Amino acid sequence: MIAAGTAEAQFGSSPGMGGGPPGGPPGPAGSGVVPKRRFVQLEEQSGEIVHEVRFEGIQTILPQAIQSKVQTQAGQYLSERQIREDVRNLYSTRWFYSVEPRVEETEQGSVVVFQLLERPIVQSVGFTGNEKFTSEYLAKYIGLVKGSPFDVALNKEAAKRIERLYKDKGYYFAKVELASGGDKNDRSVMFRITEGEKVVVRGITFHGNEAISSGVLATKLQTKTQKFWFFGGQYDKSTIADDIAALKAYYFGLGYLDAQVSEKVGFSENGAHVYLDYSIVEGPRYRIRNIAIKGTEIISENTLRREMTTLPGDYFTSRELGEDLRMIQGRYGELGRINAKVEAIPRYLETPGLIDIDLIIDEDEVWRIRRINVHITGSNGRPTSHTRKRVIENRMVSAPGDLANPRMIKKSEQRINREQLFEGGPLAGPRIEFNPVPEEETRFAQSLMRPEGTVRGQNLDFVETSYGTNESTPLVRGQNFERGLEQPGNLLWDSSPQGDPFGPALNSPPYPFVQYREGDLDVYVQEARTGRLMFGAGVNSDSGLVGNIVLDERNFDLFRPPTSWDDIVEGRAWRGAGQTFRLEAVPGDQVSRYTASWTDNYFMDTDVSLGLSGFYYQRFLDNWDEQRSGGRVAFGYQFNPDLSGNIAFRLENVDINNPHGAPPPPPLAAVAGSNFLTTVRGTLAHDTRNSAFLPSEGHILTGSYEQAFGEFNYPRLELDASQYFTVWNRIDGQGRHILSLNGRVGWTGDDTPVFEKFYAGGYSSFRGFDFRGVTPKISNIEVGGFWQALGSVQYQVPVTADEAISLVAFTDFGTVEQEVGFSQFRLSVGGGIRLIIPAMGPVPMAFDFAVPLMQEPFDEEQLFAFYVGINR
């Protein structure tokens, strides 16, 4: 309904309505005879029909363009709500300083009038001097087009943005000016661009450095030289300050506490090439005269000193001192003192090159974990997620009731992050926070400290607390409490009709009562894109050329089939349990393999892993063609961080076709055609390596026993061992010379078929010999051995400071024979090169040359062996 108002009444003056935006100029009055005006009551729509929509005050903008922004049209019902929405839409175009609507009565009906005050509008946008970027690209980049609001400040900012774009692309001397558009009376915008030459870094030199080579220093710089006249080398002046800071920090970390770094920048005549020279004054390398430890009460000073590697008289290095600080914090963390702090304060002495170090320790209180709270955010920050909380809880090393040990909390973070189910980084996580509980909420006031610890490598059926087992609260490892447990009575001092529940043990307690506080562990994770489709290719001297196509889902859930179409669209189906599902196709000219596998690392919420796999395999060997199809079921268990075990059941059908020889030798003829193989294999592995791909310290020792039964009945024993040593490294810990020792011993029973015997030779087992070139033969046909003993010694030296290129020298030795012994011992020596290209994956490319020094007449030599692979 419409109520009559005064002749001058208009719509309300709230923001977005008549009068323009707050602070905006008033709209001009209409001209000519002013019809009667009315105020429209706020209702969805009136019963009146709009006769006309009119725009007043426009000068440069076409009425058709304005009409396209409003919804009020002639012939519609008159609606104040719609008019208000039209006002907001007109303001959002930024074409107008003010928009004042009104309704006028005429003989023909209601007329809706929008009184407008235009902003200046850009009539044209142009660019001159641009060759590297098209005008269309630059216009889109700055978002300035014909019809945009004209604003001098925005035009100047657009010129700066274009100039930054050029400099970010390496055109350091680029200049962008406003040929027009810098005056408020302008209506066209023209950018005058002087691009200049693209500036690249052609050379970086150092002088004054004596202790550290220039090659090593170059690895610390963000600035890099151009490679092969095409790749990289972009010059950015702002990174020079960062380079200087990085060089100073590097020298400081090695004990050169007075090191100074300055730079000189030189340009070629045309300004296209930059040459950087860093001048270094190293100064003396400081030694430590004395280390003072202050603030120790719980752990004795002597105990800490015995475990420290930084000693008086040593050169100061921040790396070694940092390891000692972490060791001390770790010792306190084992006692639940999660907030213990250790600060190293250097004190300079009058004697040049000597410092004292004060270690200030804040021992903190004892803390225990009350509960674990899991917070899962969906991918791309969505509030809903697909992953079950149990996926996180199963990977936690810490559990409710444990001491708050930061090392174990960090290890939990690493276990959660290791399988890449969740986003990484400081913001996305995985992140575990320890949050103290207010003292009035603490469940237990005191705890008896006992020397025995809780074994974490098991599934707990019940919660174990300081007061025994609460059988009403079943708990799997790492599960968080949904509700806090009730605080029990203090059995140490309360009267109890059952008598003293602890018996005589407390009459003379051997361990003190320790006051502690409690806190919660809050685990924050954000789901990552866990499904991957990967492509790769490889070639090596053993297997020829192969391709690789992998479909991999790391957050699979075998027991979550789709129940609706939305489950598939939203990605809920088959996802959320932290299982791994993998389909892999590896076609090749000599070897082809197709597999499907499913793994649950925490089967039924225990520490036992379960893996199922099916496969098809085909290989064209020198003496026969081999096809395998079958499956495996494997159970695994991690006893501790270094020791793991595995039991695997294998069912295979093995087809042997095209056997060579006329007739083929008996061991080969006996298995021609189809063979069914059934085995069970148990394996123990102890692994202390610091890296799976490029270890420099530690060992891996693997022993296994396999028993075949059914069509073939035989035992099989194998033992593999590798030990890695860092023989030498730079003072910064890098540039490592690595000595590796490898050995392999195996024996199998007399009923072992020819396709399961031992063979050696090739890149992965015995260099200097062809693939399977070290093996017993019958009539020049490889038939394998029942015994093998192989070894290798290799020394690796980096050539470049970043360790991307390394040289190796090695010797391989051993034998494969029909009987246990060394009557056919072989030996080869050689050398090779290793190349690490990050874009091609973590495994280095390898090229080796080897020459046999000891061999048998029937052995097959191969002087060159190699491996090259790429995965994306």
Task: Please characterize this protein's 3D structure.
It contains twelve helices and 40 strands. It is globular, with a radius of gyration of 38 Å. A hairpin with an 8-residue loop joins strand 36 and strand 37. It is 13% helix and 39% strand. The longest helix is centred in the N-terminal third of the chain and has 17 residues. The strands form ten sheets. Strands 21-22-23-24-25-26-27-28-29-30-31-35-36-37-38-40 form a 16-stranded antiparallel beta barrel. It has a four-stranded mixed β-sheet with strand order 1-3-4-2, with helices on one face. A three-stranded mixed β-sheet has the order 5-7-6, with helices on one face. The protein has 872 residues and is mostly beta strands.
Q: What attributes does this structure have?
A:
872 residues, 16-stranded antiparallel β-barrel, four-stranded mixed beta sheet, 12 helices, globular, disordered N terminus
